[in-house]
Amino acid sequence: MTLEDLAKKTKEELLTLAREMKIKNRSKMTKNELIENLKTTKVQSEAKAEAQIKAVASPKQPPEPIYGSGLAKAETHAPTRAKETRFPLPTTYNETKIALLIRDPFWLYTYWDLSPEAKAQLKNDYGDWEKAPLGLRICEEEESGGADPHLFHVSINPSTSNWYLNVQPNHYYTAELGYFSPAGDFIILARSNTVITPRATFSQVIDEEWMIIEEDFRRLYRMAGDPQASSAELGGGLLKRLEKEMGSAAVSSLSSPFGQPPADRRFWLVLNTELIVYGATEPNAVLTLDGQPVTLRPDGSFTARFALPDGKKSIPVTACSQDGNDEITITPVVTKETY
């Protein structure tokens, strides 16, 4: 099959051929990439088949006899290879210390070592340092710092020097290595570094690059005229114009109608609503949101922030592949009512 024949086929037909030839990652390839990989695979298969036919057609020849002269040849020796010197890692560094590492949002890994002096003290107190009730005291604290730190203990085997800890995401942790004295007090031998586990969810920072400070907006609103005078209609027109022109890039306060509090009363209420749409696609795709083009981030993700007035709103999101052969549309429908 020539390149011209492959070029006449549709992408679905090319994917079927690629599946038969067991080409990997075929679903992510463009039509041109599929054609190139199919051609390469076919050439390799034909070369391999031709080599097998030649191997069957030409039987192996018996080895030719070796005729010696009867004279001893001078012996040759391969150069002696220098022996590599290896230095094994020590099982202990004779220092009392403990370290804490993050594996993922739910697990920490800690390892420690005891100095000869610490082992001698434990041996003096318990007869043998391996019989000492060693343990880990873990200090847990929320990232926000709103609550008091929480302590919990983990019993460990003195013969081991590392442990895994099941923890919670987005928390501070510090590990203390020690043992319980006969009086029940926890004697600290070493304290680890403090780590913070990562979040197990999407980042709460979504679209700070679109943020509009409320004070700046109010200043622009007042620049349109005195809200208490006849220019209030002009201020309202500016509000609607900003809402229309800025669209999804505006904060919801632009679309929520409110006025200045009455001159004789200082008590008032403002309620704002907004809608955040986010997702991801191929980084080289073309994306439109409600008919407007959206710039993708390098990883293909995107975020859009909409004003959300009362009523029913449809937001079609369409992603088109770079070669234009694939297209997907998802349309969320949101309804809002204010009472």
Short overview:
The protein has 339 residues and is an alpha+beta fold.
General description of the model:
Helix 2 runs parallel beside helix 3. This protein folds into three domains: 3-45; 97-196, Immunoglobulins (Immunoglobulin-like, Sandwich), CATH 2.60.40.10; 208-336, Immunoglobulin-like (Sandwich). It has 339 residues and is of the alpha+beta class. 23% of the residues lie in helices and 27% in strands. The chain is built from six helices and 15 strands. It has helices at residues 3-8, 11-20, 31-57, 116-126, 214-223, 232-246; strands at 97-104, 107-113, 134-142, 150-155, 162-166, 171-180, 186-196, 274-280, 286-289, 292-294, 301-307, 311-314, 317-320, 327-330, 333-336.
DSSP strand content? 25-35%
Strand elements, count: 15
Work out the count of structural domains.
Answer: 3
Q: What share of residues is helical?
A: 10-25%
Q: What is the correct CATH architecture of the largest domain?
A: Sandwich
Give unreliable regions as ranges: 226-231, 245-259
Strand sequence of the main sheet, in spatial order? 4-3-6-7
By CATH, the topology of the largest domain is Immunoglobulin-like
Q: Which structural class do you get from the secondary structure elements? A: alpha+beta
For this structure, the quaternary state is: single chain
- Describe the main β-sheet briefly: 4 strands, antiparallel
| Assigned CATH class of the largest domain | Mainly Beta
* Average residue-wise pLDDT: 78
The helix-strand sequence is HHHEEHEEEEEHHEEEEEEEE
Shape: flat
- First-to-last CA distance: 68 Å
Radius of gyration: 36 Å
Number of helices: 6
